[in-house]
Task: structure prediction
Amino acid sequence: MTYGEAKPEISVQMGHKGKVRSVCFSPDGKYIASGSEDETIKLWEVSTGKLVITFKWYTGAVCFSPDGEYIALGSMDNSIKLWEVSTWKLVRTFKWHEDEVTSVCFSPDGEYIASGSKDSTINLWEVSTADVIWTFEGQKDEVLSNVVWSVAFSPDGEYIASGSSDGTIKLLEVSTGEVVWTVKGHKDEVRSVCFSPDGKYIASQAGIWDNTIKLWQVSTGILVRTFEEHQGWVTSACFSPDGKYIAFGSKDKTKLLEVSTGKLVRTFYDYRDALSSVAFSPDGEYIASGHGDGTIKLLEVSTGEVVWTVKGHEYAVNLVCFSPDGKYIVWRSYWNGTVNLWKVSTGEIVWTVKGYTEAPLSVAFSPDGKYIALGSYYKTKLLEVSTGILVRTFEEHQGWVTSVCFSPDGKYIALGSGDKTIKLWEVSTGELVRTFKGHTDTVLSVAFSPDGRYIASGSWDKTINLWEVLTGELVRTFEGHTEAVGPVAFGPDGRYIASVSDDNTIKLWEASTGILVRTFYWHVHAYKPLSVAFSPDGKYIALGSGDKTIKLLEVSTGELVRTFKGHTGTVLSVAFSPRGKYIASGSWDGTIRLWDVKSGNGVAQFICFSDGEWVVITSDGYYNASANGEKYLNVRVGNKVYEVEKYRDMFYRPDLVKHALEGN
Result:
């Protein structure tokens, strides 16, 4: 592979956030490609374990072309994408399947691609034109499709083997698409098939109720041998390049079997999560394994040692909130409950609070910026912003505290909970003032009106309630959503309430009358809006979504003004800066991004790692980092990855980071 002139680019060593569904080596053995349920594809350098590049696509199946020039991706959008490795440009899209593409494989000469799908079909495609040569249609149940989980070409390119959810393995003739034979011997659906290098055998692996690998003779379809795994289900299997061994993944181990005898040769490492994919390197010296927790490991076959491990050291960011003066952002990590305070002007972490046994589900600054409230299971904690020290704990709820909100004067805090109630507390004393009852299911969000007279609440019961703070009385109920109502927010003048629902709509209501003013129909129907925020002037609404973008909508017209793109995971939280210049977004991809509202451009991304180290990188590639944060940074030139030290003088510019974050 050649790359021509390439510009050095800073990159962050970030692992997958979801199950690794597929791993494969490039034909020259220099790279490993991995596809994950986090909807990203990553390319790793084998010699170092460093991340070369990440790009987002709704995929799980990945395969290199025989010459290593291309990667084919089987996608959840029912298509196959062909990417050029040297440029990472999309070359071609193959469309025909009617459901997710679960498996892709190149023919040995690289002229064809075979694909299996959840639509019960196998397609043979011509790579140069993306035309379908033939389609094999399996039997379909009236309710469930017969999913084709795996396809593989024979080494001579004359046959395609397939494994399906009906428990069968089929051998198809490439020239005609005709079935040569069909066998059924597993007790569960067949999840993977592969040919031996000499083309004489097919190895098949089935689901968790089977726990076996079976070896079939290609010429006859006769079962030759069954390899039984008694200590955990088998998740993936592949032949070594010389055909002497089969590597397979089980519940918590990678194992190596001798084909001729069926004897267990070696067991590699104990894992905390099940293996989902294994692959041999072209020279047979290494095995790559992908895992359910997003981890990828490189194993040395001769010793059984782990050469390197890559995993996500960063946690999904599901809550972000600006301080009232805009100088700080508080955010919390989804999995470990860690709460961090960032200084916006420099990107530095001011403090980190760890040790929450229950991850906070909600966060809010007090209006004077002195306190942060964190809602979690049964309780809400009040922290001092200047120190991160715990000031007070509010405990009365009988369920998760899903939402917290301070009154505009800072005297009270409203808490919504899974116990279907909202409780109002006096901040200075910690005394419970009143309980609001009326919802029939979990309260998912609460918001004070700008004048502090009312509280709006959204619930799983599909309604929004408006409550009078002074008396606790229910003023009115807003009905119109057909699914659970998540985030609710008042406009800055208190005239309107915005509500976001699982029914894929955002509704704007007149607070004083309950009249529905406008419905914003979410145009990306596969992904629901998950977070909402009004701009300080009330003219715009920002929405974060599962399509990995933030949408800016004009309140008066409902028109889409701008889309902010850059995250590689679901956007879980959005917040406007106090003056409305920036939007901060937290994502499943483990980053916080700062966006310029007027231009739509990204300003910087903030990443905090599980060991407390952090980095902040501007859109121009300049970075600032904690003492040891640089260990997570690489510099990519083409598809070659270098230690950041070599380019430190070029990219380590805290002064330019500060300059960018101050809006210059």
Q: What stands out?
A: Residues 654-661 form the longest helix (8 residues). The two ends are 40 Å apart (CA to CA).
